[in-house]
Write a structure and sequence with these properties.
With 106 residues, the protein is α+β, with helices and mostly antiparallel strands. The protein is built from six helices and three strands. It is elongated, with a radius of gyration of 17 Å.
Length: 106
């Protein structure tokens, strides 16, 4: 009997001898929908900013576990987080300054 597990990031892995073996997608188009090159390199962005995981998480306002999961490939940033990381890649100082300032009421 084959034991399968659905991971939080949508991958399906087979459990064999206590290890997780990734399954190849049933449809080749499914693999093209999630190219690894399209993911922001979170570790590289954090290191360029010379921040620890804890400091980077605090600046982004996310739990440090989220940063760890992104860097280890367990999860991928989605939606607003992905957009924010793309902007950080181009102008980290501006983003961190904007995130650290108090919002003004209009």
């Amino acid at each position: 009997m084959q034991r399968l597990r659905l991971k939080a990031d949508g991958r399906i892995v087979e459990l064999r001898d206590g290890q997780e073996i990734p399954l190849v997608p049933a449809y080749p188009a499914e693999a093209a929908m999630h190219p690894a090159a399209a993911r922001p390199a979170v570790r590289d962005l954090r290191r360029r900013a010379q921040l620890t995981q804890l400091e980077f998480a605090a600046k982004l306002g996310v739990p440090v576990e989220t940063i760890r999961n992104w860097e280890q490939g367990k999860r991928a940033p989605r939606g607003p987080a992905r957009a924010l990381l793309a902007v950080i890649a181009h102008s980290p100082e501006t983003v961190f300054a904007a995130l650290s300032s108090e919002p003004t009421v209009a």
